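TA notes, week 10

Several of you asked for a full example with nothing omitted. So below is the full record: structure tokens for the whole chain, then the designed sequence directly under it. When grading your own attempts, check the secondary structure regions first.
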């Protein structure tokens, strides 16, 4: 796993930086900072709280509350003192920082014409640590590739939250793009609507998504897929977390254009997939040739099964 600790510590003001520097960052998934409440640390194997000396505490009542001043200091560093310059990102509720790490924000929503325009009076931040696990897809990739036809199967990864879906998808994209010893590299069009896969910062992907990958950052999936099909002639398109009708229609356009597909959906089983109308339609139409179910049963990224369309 590759994480630049300096990039993470840079968003903490001095009064917090010393406390969090000694955290077991190799196990940290998220840091949740809420004004007037203790700092929550989400680890691979459970949650705990930040003590006054930087120690991990199991009981929130024993942890000191975070001051409004400390939260304001974090916000200033995250936004580089330009909160208003980030209004487009704030509409989505998060900011991507150097390294591809994502900082979610909550506060008072400014609503115009029934839509969220921005956020004010920020009351909480969630620093989500982005990681690359190179080789995470090593054992899965051969199951998604037809060596006789030199073709990647149209693949859907399904997973409950926090099961490594995005990390696995990122490594699949990298390997498809770069190629491996036995598989030639392909042009990949990646629609990164939530800036999680490539972690683009000032136009440059902070995560390794491959040398042949073209990234559309912060772009709605359906629109992005269609744009890539028209302008970048991808051999494979990739998007995270499909589910809306327009997403399904865009994937079908890619299929009709002879383009491979790698995508994901939140679900813990095929039953949950079929409860979502547009995914159910795609499954009924046998759009996906492979479906992969992930879990945390043996750790993050456990592959429970890989099924062919005939088995689904």
């Amino acid at each position: 796993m590759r994480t630049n600790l300096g990039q993470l510590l840079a968003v903490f003001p001095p009064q917090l930086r010393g406390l969090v520097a000694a955290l077991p960052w190799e196990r940290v998934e998220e840091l949740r900072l809420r004004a007037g409440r203790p700092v929550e640390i989400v680890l691979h194997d459970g949650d705990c709280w930040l003590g006054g000396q930087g120690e991990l505490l199991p009981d929130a009542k024993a942890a000191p509350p975070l001051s409004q001043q400390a939260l304001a200091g974090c916000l200033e560093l995250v936004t580089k003192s330009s909160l208003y310059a980030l209004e487009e990102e704030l509409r989505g509720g998060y900011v991507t920082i150097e390294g591809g790490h994502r900082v979610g924000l909550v506060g008072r929503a400014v609503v115009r014409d029934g839509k969220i325009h921005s956020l004010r009076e920020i009351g909480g931040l969630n620093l989500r640590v982005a990681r690359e696990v190179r080789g995470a897809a090593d054992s899965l990739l051969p199951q998604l590739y037809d060596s006789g036809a030199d073709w990647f199967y149209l693949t859907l990864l399904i997973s409950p939250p926090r099961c490594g879906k995005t990390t696995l998808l990122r490594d699949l994209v990298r390997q498809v793009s770069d190629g491996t010893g036995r598989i030639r590299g392909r042009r990949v069009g990646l629609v990164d609507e939530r800036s999680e896969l490539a972690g683009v910062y000032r136009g440059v992907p902070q995560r390794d998504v491959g040398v042949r990958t073209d990234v559309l950052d912060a772009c709605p999936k359906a629109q992005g897929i269609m744009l890539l099909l028209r302008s970048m002639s991808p051999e494979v398109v990739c998007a995270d977390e499909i589910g809306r009708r327009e997403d399904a229609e865009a994937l079908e356009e890619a299929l009709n254009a002879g383009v491979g597909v790698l995508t994901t959906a939140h679900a813990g089983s095929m039953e949950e997939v079929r409860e979502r109308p547009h995914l159910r339609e795609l499954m009924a139409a046998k759009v996906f040739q492979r479906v992969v179910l992930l879990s945390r049963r043996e750790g993050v990224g456990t592959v429970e099964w890989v099924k062919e369309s005939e088995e689904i």
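The two ends are 33 Å apart (CA to CA). Use that as a sanity check on your answer.
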